[in-house]
Specification:
0% helix, mainly beta, four-stranded antiparallel beta sheet, Methylamine Dehydrogenase, Chain H, six-stranded mixed beta sheet
Length: 415
C-alpha cells in the first residue's frame, strides 16, 4: 500500500493495515481504511447476472457510486431505456419513444442521464434519475455514442459523420470542428473541459480537445479503427481500444501499447483516477479483462458467457470496484446485463492548510463514515460531524474542518 508523502506503514492492534501521513512537524494525522466484514482479494473478478431483462443491449452507464444505472438497447423492445437505482437489483423501463438507443451517459450523482438514438433519432435527457425524460435540442442524427461531465452540464455525442457538444445541460448544441468520420466513442473529464473521441470504420488517430470541444487536435496515437475510449476524472489518463489497446498518462501527448492480447475489444471503462480498467471483447465467446495498474498487467475475469455470446459495453463506478457489462447472443440475439464487485479500499488523503485540514477520498461503491480519535489506544472513535461535499472536478468527497489542537487521527470505516 502506498503511504503518501513522509509516511510509514504500521499494523494496528486490530490487524488491519493503516496509512499514516505526517503533515507537519506538530501533528500526526492518521488516514486509515477499516473494512467491516470484508476481505481484500487480488483474484480475477467473477460476474453475476443482474435482474435486467433479456434484451438487445447496446450501452450501460453508471453513477459514481455504482448505484444508479442507465442502459439502452434496440427498438425490438418497447422504449429501450432502462434505469436502476439499486445497482441493478431492480430495473424499470422508461417512458420514451421507440428508437435504436445506441449510447448512454450518467452524471456522478446519477441524477442526470442522457441517451442517444441511432436511426436517425434524438438525444434525450433526464434530471431525476430516469423518472422522466425530455428530448434535447440536439439535431436528430445517427448517434453512436454520448458522454457527460460529472455534474451533467457538459455533453458530447458522436454520429456517423460529426461530433456535437453542449455546455449548458443540452439546451444548445454546436457542431465540433472535426473530420468527417464514424465517431464510435467519446469520453469526458469530470469538469467537461478535456474531451476525447475515436473513429471506427476507416480509422484514424485519437482526437483530444482541451477546451470543451471548441477545438480538436489529432494525437500521436497510432491510426486504427478504434471502438472505445475512456478518460480519468482529470483528463490525463486515456485508454483507447479496438484490436490493439493503447494508454496515455499525459492527455494524449504520448501513447503506450498495453500488455494485453489483440482482440476485437468493443468497450473500455476506467476509474476516476485512471488506475482501474475494464475491457470487454466482442469476439464470439468473448472475454472480460481488468487491470488495477492502468493496464501494466491484466487479469482475465470469470464470466458466464457461452461459446455464442459476446460483450458489447462496460461501465465502472468512480473507484473501479463496481462494474457493469452488457452482452448479446450469436447474430445479435438478446442478452443480459452483468455486474462484478470487489472490495473498495478508498485512500484517505489529507491536506494540511494554515487553518484547516482537508480530507478527501474517491467516491466509493459502498458507504463509509469518516471518523476521528485523539489517540489509537482508547478506541474512542467518533464520526466527524461534517457532511462531505462532492468535488465534481475529481469525483472525490471532501471534508474541510478546523485544524485540531494537538494530535488527531482520522479513518474511513464501512457501514
Amino acid at each position: 500500500m502506498r503511504t503518501g508523502f513522509c509516511g510509514f506503514i504500521f499494523r494496528s492492534r486490530l490487524g488491519r493495515w493503516s496509512n499514516a501521513v505526517n503533515t507537519s512537524s506538530r501533528k500526526l494525522l492518521l488516514a486509515s481504511v477499516v473494512l467491516s466484514q470484508w476481505s481484500l482479494s487480488a483474484k480475477p473478478q467473477d460476474w453475476i447476472q443482474t435482474s435486467a431483462p433479456l434484451y438487445y443491449w447496446n450501452s450501460v452507464a453508471s453513477s459514481g457510486d455504482g448505484v444508479k444505472l442507465v442502459a439502452v438497447g434496440d427498438f425490438q423492445g418497447p422504449g429501450g431505456i432502462y434505469v436502476s437505482t439499486n445497482s441493478g437489483a431492480i430495473w424499470n423501463l422508461s417512458d420514451v419513444p421507440d428508437h435504436i438507443w445506441a449510447g448512454a451517459a450518467s452524471s456522478a450523482d446519477g441524477k442526470c442521464f442522457a441517451a442517444a438514438a441511432w436511426g436517425p433519432g434524438p438525444i434525450v435527457l433526464s434530471t431525476n434519475s430516469g423518472s422522466s425524460w425530455n428530448i434535447s435540442n440536439a439535431p436528430w442524427g445517427l448517434w453512436n455514442c454520448i458522454a457527460c461531465s460529472a455534474d451533467g452540464s457538459h455533453l458530447i455525442a458522436g454520429t456517423d459523420t460529426a461530433i456535437y457538444s453542449s455546455t449548458n445541460y443540452g439546451l444548445f448544441w454546436i457542431s465540433n470542428d472535426v473530420p468527417s468520420g464514424y465517431w464510435s466513442s467519446v469520453a469526458s473529464s469530470a469538469d467537461g473541459t478535456t474531451l476525447a473521441a475515436v473513429i471506427d470504420g476507416s480509422g484514424g488517430p485519437v482526437y483530444v480537445s482541451t477546451n470543451a470541444g471548441a477545438s480538436w487536435n489529432p494525437t500521436d496515437s497510432p491510426s486504427y479503427a478504434w471502438s472505445s475510449i475512456a478518460c480519468s476524472a482529470d483528463g490525463t489518463h486515456l485508454i483507447a481500444t479496438g484490436s490493439p489497446t493503447y494508454t496515455s498518462t499525459d492527455s494524449g501527448r504520448t501513447w503506450l501499447s498495453n500488455d494485453i492480447p489483440w482482440e476485437l475489444w468493443s468497450s473500455v471503462a476506467c476509474s476516476a483516477d485512471g488506475t482501474k480498467l475494464a475491457i470487454v471483447s466482442q469476439y464470439v465467446g468473448g472475454v472480460i479483462c481488468t487491470s488495477t495498474n492502468f493496464g501494466n498487467t491484466w487479469l482475465t475475469n470469470t464470466t458466464p458467457t457461452t461459446s455464442y455470446e459476446f460483450w458489447v459495453s462496460v461501465a465502472s463506478s468512480a473507484d473501479g470496484t463496481r462494474l457493469f457489462a452488457t452482452n448479446l447472443g450469436q447474430g445479435g440475439a438478446p442478452g443480459y446485463i452483468y455486474t462484478s464487485e470487489s472490495t473498495p479500499a478508498p485512500s484517505l488523503g489529507i491536506i494540511d492548510n494554515d487553518t484547516n485540514v482537508v480530507l478527501s477520498w474517491i467516491i466509493p461503491s459502498m458507504h463509509f463514515l469518516l471518523q476521528q480519535a485523539p489517540d489509537l489506544t482508547s478506541g474512542t472513535w467518533t464520526v466527524v460531524p461534517v457532511t462531505p461535499s462532492l468535488n465534481y472536478s475529481n469525483l472525490q468527497y471532501q471534508v474541510s474542518i478546523p485544524k485540531p489542537q494537538g494530535t488527531m487521527f482520522y479513518r474511513l470505516i464501512s457501514e
